[in-house]
Fold this protein.
Amino acid sequence: MSWFSEYFKFDEHRTDMRTEVLAGITTFMTMAYILFVNPAILSDAIGKEAVPSLVTATALSAGLATIMMALYAKKPFALAPGMGLNAYFTYGVVLGMGYSWQVALAAVFVEGIIFIVLSLTKVRSAIIHAIPLSQKYAIGAGIGLFLTIIGMEEAGIVVDHPATLITLGVENFKTPELWLALFGLFFAGILISRRIKGALLISILTTTIIGIVLGVTPAPEKIFALPTLSYTFLKMDLKGLFNVGAIGVVFAFFMVDFFDTLGTITGLSAKAGFLTKDGKIPDAEKILLTDAVGTTMGAMFGTSTVTTYIESAAGIEEGGRTGMTALVTGLLFLVIGLLVSPIAAIIPAYATAPALIIVGYYMLSAIRGVDFDDPTEAIPAFLVLVTIPFTYSIADGIGMGFISYAIIKALSGRGKEVHPLLYVLALVFVAYFLYLGGVL
């Protein structure tokens, strides 16, 4: 016990073992839904037979990356495959662009390697300073809307329409799945409003159980099973990645991962009282490197990009201030997460769809950080916000934001406010869009 106290500096952070353990359990409860939601999303691209491997990959990557955060960075931050990035993997890259899931995994792996290199060099700082805050906030909020529309489609609340593109799924009003999804959505909303820990997890499991009782969903044959990675381990198609020239995919994964992590750790550090007087994040390089290693490791296991979770704020709220909080969370992912694949295999879309919508609500709140009194900041941010869900592409949204920000600032006589590197990134995206359009 004294070793933990000295290693994590309990006295310096004015905490104790009991507080840290309870904080770690709290963080796990708020994040455990990812054990069911991530396999559900990725299996749409990889296949339902891959669910046991995807559960194992999710639990392993979350557990090991979070333990690395605990022991290396010593911060109460937990990691897992990121929401939004898993949706982009499935609905953007595989189902949208037509790449194989093995190529998509290779893109995640390469993105992680790039992230590691940049985390060890000064290039990282240059990129951080180049992207304006309004763009960072808008990207996070846009991903939130992206998740929301996916969740509403999964629930059957909205469907496609030849005239209006999407419309209310009135034909689904006769199906029990729609009503179960609405129950799950409202139930989760009530639990969150009453500040119940693990609201999304409780909603997913409760909705699934009701579905089983009503005969809508089959009961699992067993509760626990031994972990397996047989379907996804080291299945990255690196050769195929370079053959198809999916540079834009790698770039999109990297940009979202990098800035999502940066925004998350900034917010969490502020909440925990870690920020210095000039707004810097102590040990930022260790945190970012942990995130990068987690992504690379996750791709090897067979899951999409691993990132730091804003749900870590729940543990911080409970008093967690050291790596001990993350250590407890990571161990719970390994102990519990590796055994629940039979349950995950029968979790239906109508049970996970509400979680996507609620996570979208959480992420949309980031838009509050945009200065809407300044059109040169707000209009590019708005374009990011709407382009991501309307084009079903995070990459397209980022590109629209960078290009519009550079043009509007420059032609408004405020071009000096734009970092030179952002002009370069804007030109890269112009070339990227022209390439997609067959112009180049």
Notes: The chain is about 65% helix and 5% strand.
